[in-house]
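Re: beginner question about structure tokens

> Can someone show what the tokenized structure looks like for a real chain? I only ever see the sequence side.

Sure, here's an example I had lying around. Input first:
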Amino acid sequence: MFYDNNGKPIYRISNKNSSNQKKVEILPPPDNIHTTDLQTVLAEMIVQYTKMGFCNARLHVFDGKKNFDIVFQDEGKENISANEYSPYEGTAAKCSFYADDLGQNHDDLIFQITPDNPFYVWILKDKKNNHPFIAKLEKPSTLLGKLTVYTKSIEFKD
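And the corresponding structure tokens:
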């Protein structure tokens, strides 16, 4: 499988036998051509931070069924420490994001990401290349309690 810069698969190599390889394009279903997933939302936040140096932005999203906005907000700087889950530490830009259902009153799980209960993201810069990356992601309250995700390793390719 081969992926574009946004992490979406673009083609694969079909190999029925070693002498007959074929490049096969991967096209999304027609209903999903202009859709956005959470991975893309996070990638857009990193792009915004890289270009502007802050997170404040609004991203219009279509998930295949509904239109809504994801609102990113700066939350300042915060020191994070290496721990048993992640070796990364330093002064991180802390950002939050939530879903704005544009007054449509959706009841999906995505809309439980509200201004009162957003996701928080800590962005560090790689010490070798100075590229920003998400070091930590946290949702203080979910149906199962607090959710925290740490980056264990990163690899940048030019």
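Each token stands for a local structural state, so reading them left to right follows the chain. Residues 38-52 form the longest helix (15 residues).
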